[in-house]
Amino acid sequence: MKKKKSSWRKKFNEPVTFSVIPQIQNEESVVLFLVAWTVTEITRYSFYTFSLLDHLPYFIKWARYNFFIILYPVGVAGELLTIYAALPYVKKTGMFSIRLPNKYNVSFDYYYFLLITMASYIPLFPQLYFHMLRQRRKVLHGEVIVEKDD
Prior knowledge:
Helix content: 55-70%
Largest sheet: none
Pfam family, one: PTPLA
Strand content: under 5%
Transmembrane segments: 67-90, 110-130
Radius of gyration: 20 Å
Number of domains: 1
Structural class: mainly alpha
Main location: endoplasmic reticulum
Low-confidence stretches: 1-16
Number of strands: 0
Organism: Cervus elaphus hippelaphus (European red deer)
Shape: elongated
Order of helices and strands: HHHHH
Distance between the termini: 66 Å
């Protein structure tokens, strides 16, 4: 039986998660972001479900707008540490990278994509975190937030 070649398209259809890298699976940082994501999603979908049922317990509302204060930084730290731990493996193996020459005449280096992704956390994390803090004030304390026009 002849073994089929794995095309780049098939590789990119696989879930792009670091749990597919055996060397990274046991990193403590994976546990950090998985726990943070799991608690966040359980809280978020509980909030949505109870809201749809028009029966939102205050604790669920409170949890939705307070848990992120700890979970968001913990999740981001876990993500960044996991990406950092994966960098040597990604560089060594060329994982998810496309090299020239090829029939599509394109090149993509996943290693550099990850570095750019990590750098993007610097401007994006504070914006998203402060947005959530403003939402928290508005929902839990009834404050009206006036956004400044630039």
